């Protein structure tokens, strides 16, 4: 028979879950408005949309900092909870404690400024004029510094902001991994650049958008995307968003390069299949939410690179490519085209699998210095171009190809970029663990059998939601601590073979 204190704790926990579920629904509604703004909203809709998203952000913040929620968390401190309940309380308490330190009017101001920043950035990029965007960026930097200072005035503000996206691995881990990638990938890329291998694209001319869309829809079908809980649209900057009941993907089409749409669609499929794999019975609570952006990115990179850019997948999918595009391309040609290394590429989202990380390191270093005050906003174009020259031996001719190419800073998403590389590193570690457990993944992919891998990922990653911290989830899924070893071994092996190193 339950004691009164146990019964009280149970009632308090249920009240907390009810509150958190309502709060989550507010956040998910804001997410749908953001999706609409990037995909379908008329251009003139920004003024109203800015107020709408700001209002929802304010409501969400009020619910997260609510006194009743604080009382519930206090009452559950030290209570006899099972592991899943303790995980929910841990995650809610972490978010609550951070949020209570930030004034609601600052949260609303950041949201409204971010929403208004989107069309400013779009116009500045269109006009190739960073100075148009500079005042908005400066305002966002100031607001996010203030945000970090409210949370913890005694810590590095960038470390505080990084924890918005990766709360458990720590900035020191991110810095250590990024430095190792820089130190080991730069010489590998130099070797590739000096090699005699010629991995030319087999595609010539342009390819109709409708044909490309049919191609990527076939790819989503092949991989097992659940259309009953998703949809495909286009966006200037492809992204995925949603819940386990509605996980949407977007892509974009480049007339001269159909592999760009194929790669970006498979990438977003990885995000969406993670979201669709979250436990439905825990919707609205941390147990039904993705762990963090590093883990989320690991799922997109796993499907994009370890599956979609693999030779077995090209063996499977080459006939489909040829059917839709009217080409006669071999699987080997597709494999080589999908894995070309071209350091002279200026655009991150079009970068190859290796040089991509130098794009991330560049952005990480710039935004870290912006937040710390070591770099002025007016200096961003020059520093950006200098770092591109240093890391990739290429220099942008325009701001549009340089510091205006990404959308993230319009959202005030400082601290986001490192999770891309952390996710790629984790993808290799998780894929190696899946291969060890399942065996024969190459044969499965070549045969179009993706259920074993997808089900393994659901069992070992997706179904846990936020039950584990990031480092504990990595250990649960792979049996070892987070490490870059698997990624670097994979990179040396794959590209060494392709380029005859």
* Uncertain segments: none
**Extended strand count:** 3
How would a textbook summarize the main sheet?
3 strands, mixed
Report, as a whole number of angstroms, the end-to-end distance. 69 Å
SSE ordering: HHHHHHHHHEEEHHHHHHHHHHH
| Helix content estimate | 55-70%
> What is the C-level CATH assignment of the largest domain?
Mainly Alpha
Helix/strand/pairing class, anyone? mainly alpha
CATH architecture of the largest domain: Orthogonal Bundle
User: What is the overall number of helices?
Assistant: 20
What name does the CATH topology of the largest domain carry? Neurolysin, domain 3
Radius of gyration: 23 Å
Strand order, largest beta sheet: 1-3-2
Give the number of domains: 2
How would you describe this structure to a colleague?
It is a single chain. This protein has helices at 4-39, 46-64, 67-76, 83-100, 104-127, 130-151, 157-162, 171-194, 209-223, 258-276, 293-308, 311-325, 331-338, 356-372, 380-392, 418-438, 441-446, 451-460, 470-478, 485-499; strands at 232-234, 240-243, 246-251. With 501 residues, the protein is mostly helical. It has two domains: 4-136; 171-499, Neurolysin, domain 3 (Orthogonal Bundle). The chain has a three-stranded mixed sheet with strand order 1-3-2. A hairpin with a 2-residue loop joins strand 2 (240-243) and strand 3. Helix 16 (418-438) packs across helix 20 (485-499). The radius of gyration is 23 Å and the shape is globular. The N and C termini lie far apart (69 Å). The model has no long low-confidence stretch (mean pLDDT 94).
């Amino acid at each position: 028979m339950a004691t009164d204190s146990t019964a009280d704790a149970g009632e308090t926990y249920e009240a907390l879950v009810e509150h958190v579920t309502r709060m989550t629904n507010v956040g998910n509604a804001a997410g749908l408005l953001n999706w609409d703004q990037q995909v379908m909203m008329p251009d003139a809709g920004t003024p109203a949309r800015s107020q709408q998203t700001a209002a929802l952000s304010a409501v969400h913040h009020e619910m997260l900092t609510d006194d009743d929620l604080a009382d519930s968390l206090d009452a559950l401190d030290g209570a006899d909870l099972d592991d899943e309940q303790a995980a929910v309380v841990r995650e809610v308490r972490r978010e609550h404690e951070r949020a209570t330190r930030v004034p609601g009017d600052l949260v609303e101001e950041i949201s409204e400024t971010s929403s208004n920043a989107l069309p400013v950035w779009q116009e500045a990029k269109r006009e190739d004029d960073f100075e148009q965007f500079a005042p908005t960026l400066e305002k966002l930097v100031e607001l996010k510094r203030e945000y970090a200072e409210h949370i913890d005035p005694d810590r590095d503000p960038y470390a505080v902001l990084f924890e918005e996206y990766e709360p458990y691995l720590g900035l020191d881990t991110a810095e250590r991994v990024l430095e190792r990638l820089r130190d080991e990938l730069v010489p590998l890329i130099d070797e590739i650049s000096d090699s005699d291998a010629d991995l030319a694209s087999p595609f010539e001319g342009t390819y109709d958008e409708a044909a490309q869309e049919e191609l990527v829809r076939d790819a989503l079908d092949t991989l097992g995307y659940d259309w009953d809980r998703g949809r495909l649209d286009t966006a200037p900057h492809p992204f995925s968003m949603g819940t386990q009941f509605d996980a949407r993907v977007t892509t974009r089409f480049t007339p001269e390069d159909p592999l760009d749409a194929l790669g970006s669609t498979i990438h977003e499929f990885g995000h969406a299949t993670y979201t669709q794999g979250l436990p439905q019975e825990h919707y609205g609570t941390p147990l039904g939410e993705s762990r963090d952006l590093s883990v989320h990115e690991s799922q997109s990179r796993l499907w994009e690179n370890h599956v979609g850019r693999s030779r077995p997948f090209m063996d499977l999918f080459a006939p489909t490519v040829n059917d839709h595009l009217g080409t006669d391309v071999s699987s080997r040609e597709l494999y080589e085209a999908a894995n070309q290394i071209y350091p002279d590429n200026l655009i991150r989202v079009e970068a190859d699998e290796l040089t991509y990380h130098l794009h991330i390191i560049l952005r990480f270093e710039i935004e870290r210095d912006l937040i710390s005050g070591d770099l002025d906003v007016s200096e961003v174009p020059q520093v950006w171009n200098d770092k591109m020259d240093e890391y990739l031996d290429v220099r942008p001719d325009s701001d549009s190809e340089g510091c205006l190419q990404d959308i993230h800073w319009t959202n005030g998403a400082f601290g986001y970029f490192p999770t891309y590389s952390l996710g790629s590193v984790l993808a290799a570690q998780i894929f190696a663990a899946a291969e060890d457990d399942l065996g024969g993944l190459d044969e499965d992919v070549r045969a179009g059998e993706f259920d074993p891998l997808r089900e393994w990922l659901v069992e070992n990653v997706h179904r846990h939601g936020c039950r584990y911290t990031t480092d504990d989830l990595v250990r649960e899924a792979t049996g070892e601590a987070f490490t870059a070893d698997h990624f670097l071994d994979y990179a040396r092996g794959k590209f060494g073979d392709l380029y005859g190193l």
